Amino acid sequence: MTSQEIRQKFLDYFKSKDHLIVPSAPIVLKDDPTLMFSNSGMTQFKDFFLGYKTPTAPRIADTQKCLRVSGKHNDLDDVGRDTYHHTMFEMLGNWSFGDYFKKDAIAFAWELLTEVFGIPKENLYVTIFEGDASENLERDQDAYNFWKSHISEDRIINGNKKDNFWEMGESGPCGPCSEIHVDLRTEEEKAKVSGLDLVNNDHPQVVEVWNLVFMEFNRKADKSLEKLPQQHVDTGMGFERLCMALQGKSSNYDTDVFTPLIAKVEELSGKKYTGILEDEKDIAIRVVVDHIRAVAFAIADGQLPSNGGAGYVIRRILRRGISYSYRFLGMKEPFLYKLVAVLQEQMGTFFPEIEKQGKLVSEVIKSEEDSFLKTIENGLIRVEKLIQQTIADNSKVLPSEEVFELYDTYGFPDDLTRIIAEEKGLTIDEAGFKVEMEKQKLRSKADSAQKVYDWVTLETKPENFVGYDQIESETYITRYRKVENKDGEFYQVVLSSSPFYPEGGGQVGDKGVLENAVESFEVLETKKENGLIISLINGLPKDAGAVFYAKVDATDRRNSQANHSVTHLLHEALREVLGTHVEQKGSYVGPDYLRFDFSHFNKMTEEELTLVEEKVNAKIKESIALQEFRSIPIQEALDKGAMALFGEKYGDSVRMIQFGSSKELCGGTHVKNTIEIGHFKITSESSAAAGIRRIEAISGDKSEEYFKNLENQIHELSQLLKSKDVVRSTEKLIEENISLKSEVEALKKEKAKGEIGEWKNAYEQKGNKQLLVKKTSLDAGSVKDIVFQLKREIPTSVTIILSDADGKPMITVGVSDDLAADYQAGAIVKDLAKEIQGGGGGNPGFATAGGKNLDGLENAYQKALNI
């Protein structure tokens, strides 16, 4: 049975059991502050479990793309070293929202596994929650009783809280669970050791294949448990492990989920995959085929590699794959991007995003490969210098600070530094490196540390967003909770009637005030979490149950919504000018400016930018009225021509924003008429990533300010130049400047010639060598030219020049070639630079260093005389 057939059989089975089949949610979570990625099948249904939203159906089934590379659920370091851990994996799941519970969930799972998929019953074991006295939780006797009707009691195993009480995170929905394990060993192995002894003991052939979670509780911030309003079922079956079981394999990587990718890697690298766990080559191949899936789908869902947040995680995964292929497969050129075509063929039917976004995904990955391979090459040079310096210092251990700097600042893999060091008979300071890593983690943790307390509920009133229609409203606080972070103590509040737009869809959250006759609080930000609109305020009201007035900052809202509306007009104009391949790939919409990322593979020309600007401003001047379809079936909106963005999760009903021919699905706030935008001005166009261009622009008040500033600047220039023809006067100044520069350079060369003759006669004989230590005010370029000439013309010489040009200390060292084996210019300059509080480097024959302490030149001079 192929993996495609297995996936389809699962969905067909649950469709026959009256489950609605829904598509996978994006792997990247854009509007959930608690998670970067979908790390389980239940992520997209959190709001249903918590009662914040009504499910589209009481029974749902799907296959969900998941990513486990950060936080509590992190499998990254295990990937490649065993047969079953992955970064990205598919979670097959069936869900019941207040409908069926343990009995039916267990019956469905048993029937599907044993009768539909035909797994021998004697190969299966199940676990149930044994209870936990510290939480006052009893043994899950119901699950035990239901399992008894399907499987012999000696195959039902008690499991502890760690294995059999599932929790989403530090807080949130949770409950006891039953795991189903399959024993894939040979009959001979089974005869020697019972599978009972191997369940939950990390045996590679006795693995958990399905987890049935019975959602009964909500874990609060104070760690207490409260009953959920309804009982739910949340199941998750590892698709890759199921394929391993059904295809009779002993490794996930031997199934057809991975074999086409492995075959392509073999073809491109010339290396043969043997499946040996300890073989570094095979580990590298497993890492590559796993990581390419995670990276490709994250990019297809809209997350580009970057230096922060979710983008950094994706970049780290990709770089890990590149590093392994470089070191163990000998791949010194980009090649991972060529695997995307295999993914498209394998998974495009079930996940159309990889088919549609394939070209972009390939381009982004190739660009990242090019960049990181250059990083490795540059890092190799740095490592070589570090090794030479360590040897020069008569040490066998590379210092931890420098190794960590290579890793943290330059992105050079620390394990590659180890390998190179070992080849030279050296080691790295492992203890020191761990200390540096721990310091970084603590810094990162301190920056993001936040303690969130439990909600205090005040009102049972409905919680509504009224911000599309008004920016002020009378309201009540329905619930609040305290938040502590590095900036102090704050309170998050949920309002019965909130005009504050929560950050989302690229648009910043509203700020403003929450006040009444007695007290007033600043609203610092507004976000959305689990369906709740949460505003952060700078204190707790004395009477939290009083009537308040919520007021949005009108100026910021006006400018933000102008910028948001103009992104829709910009999107349409870009598609008209550049082609329909243009799709939005990210945006930022704030009161000061807008940023718009879009798919396009070439830098825009000035003519294209001008045309786009003209088209947008023409639409603004047309005074096009907003047409808002606040709740429209998604298919109807798409039939009307609305743009839907890949990587976004849409419900059955959506909001469509229309300005003439521009139609987009959007939840943001907008102007009522395009004339309110005022004027649109592009301020920059640049590359955001391979195949992604970025436009930054302004409109409204900021556009007016822009042109006023230009007018003022031109007026000031006119007065300075004493001419109304600013352009011609500036051209004349440039011509005069070029001429003067030529004269200055000529004078410098003449001065340098005079210095050379004097310096040649100033060398001191030191035994059979010659030393020149000289102070000067010549600029760095002139000093460099002179030193190179002297080290060529004066044999067995060391030349040290200390310059104070422009009030900045500079030390330059030259060593003639015949002394290069005995004296290192880099080592000399590094030692002298300590006196000027600086640093620098170079090669054995030439090195420079700059510093902060000009007065230290005298100490450096005296020190140099004693070399």
Provide a descriptive summary of the structure in words.
The chain contains 24 helices and 37 strands. It has 867 residues and is α+β, with helices and mostly antiparallel strands. It has five domains: 254 residues, BirA Bifunctional Protein, domain 2 (2-Layer Sandwich), CATH 3.30.930.10; 75 residues, no CATH class; 102 residues, Elongation Factor Tu (Ef-tu), domain 3, CATH 2.40.30.130; 151 residues, Threonyl-tRNA Synthetase, Chain A, domain 2, CATH 3.30.980; 106 residues, Diaminopimelate Epimerase, Chain A, domain 1. 39% of the residues lie in helices and 25% in strands. This is Alanine--tRNA ligase.
Features:
single chain, about 850 residues, Elongation Factor Tu (Ef-tu), domain 3, nine-stranded antiparallel beta sheet, 24 helices
The secondary structure category is alpha+beta
**CATH fold field value of the largest domain:** BirA Bifunctional Protein, domain 2
Tell me about the largest β-sheet: 9 strands, mixed
Per CATH, the class of the largest domain reads Alpha Beta
Q: So what's the overall shape?
A: globular
Q: Structurally, how many domains make up the residues?
A: 5
Please name the fourth-level CATH homologous superfamily of the largest domain. Bira Bifunctional Protein, Domain 2
Into which percent range does the helicity of residues fall? 25-40%
Low-confidence stretches: none
The CATH architecture name of the largest domain reads: 2-Layer Sandwich
Strand content: 25-35%
Number of helices: 24
What would you report as the Rg, rounded to the nearest angstrom?
33 Å
Overall pLDDT level: 90
- Number of strand segments: 37
End-to-end distance: 77 Å
